[in-house]
Amino acid sequence: MPVSLSIADHVARVTIDRPEVLNALDREAEMQMETIWRQIEADASVRVVVLTGAGDRAFCTGADMRNVDPGQTGLGYWAASRPAGFGGIALRETLDIPVIARVNGHAVGGGFEMVLGCDIVIAAEEASFGLTEPRVGRLPLDGGMVLLQRQIAHRHALGMLLTGRRIKAAEALSFGLINEVASRDALDAAVDRWVAEILACAPLSLRAIKQVMRRTGHLSPQEAQALRLPALVAALGSEDSEEGVRAFREKRKPVWQGR
């Protein structure tokens, strides 16, 4: 299988299992990714997702250009419906669970678009990032052009987009693209630390926070504050909201039920 999913202790781990092609995605893998995201969305036990690539060379290098349909034009690809963006995650609007990108190597093209669709990014020192499509006469159509300019400074975004160059993890950190850089030996420990901190929070609170962040960025603060988003209402009326206060008063860790 080109993509694997494991779920344990409230953590869903999604791994692109195609190291022989630097974890590039073909049509089968893209379809499987969409199925996996829908499965995660339907599983109320999942509180955090970790997305990564198999091996130690690449997170994902985008579309598998060896298997590109010779009859598929750029205009035809652009016109096709892909509302969730590359890998089903770059532009996904229905996943309110926190997603961590564990970037173990190259994240370029569509792979970088997937990183841009995640919430927290932990990268190995050797990792690299870039939207290299212009160098092969293509465009980052699945989220790259529209997401990068919203996540980093204007000049940095244009510097990457207009050259197709790749940047290393240290530079990505300085741009504010990623949260943390770790040595390869310490990468899993760094990811586990972030997972533990997320699991320490009320899951419905995190769903509400992500929903507000993702769906109100185009509004004024006053307009955003006035919205009654479903996840926000659910969190405020939840049993967990009472448990958090009760645990604080009793000087113990809260036991979240997700309801």
UniProtKB/TrEMBL annotation:
User: What keywords is this UniProt entry annotated with?
Assistant: Lyase
**What superkingdom does the record give?**
Bacteria
Q: Which Pfam families match?
A: ECH_1 (PF00378)
For this entry, list what GO says about its biological process: fatty acid beta-oxidation
One GO molecular function term of this record is: lyase activity
Q: Which Gene3D superfamilies does the record cross-reference, listed alphabetically?
A: 2-enoyl-CoA Hydratase, Chain A, domain 1, Lyase 2-enoyl-coa Hydratase, Chain A, domain 2
TM helices/strands, residue ranges: none
Keyword Lyase listed: yes
Q: Give a yes or no for keyword Cell membrane in this entry.
A: no
Family (UniProt): Belongs to the enoyl-CoA hydratase/isomerase family.
Name-wise, this protein is Crotonase
Origin species: Bosea vaviloviae
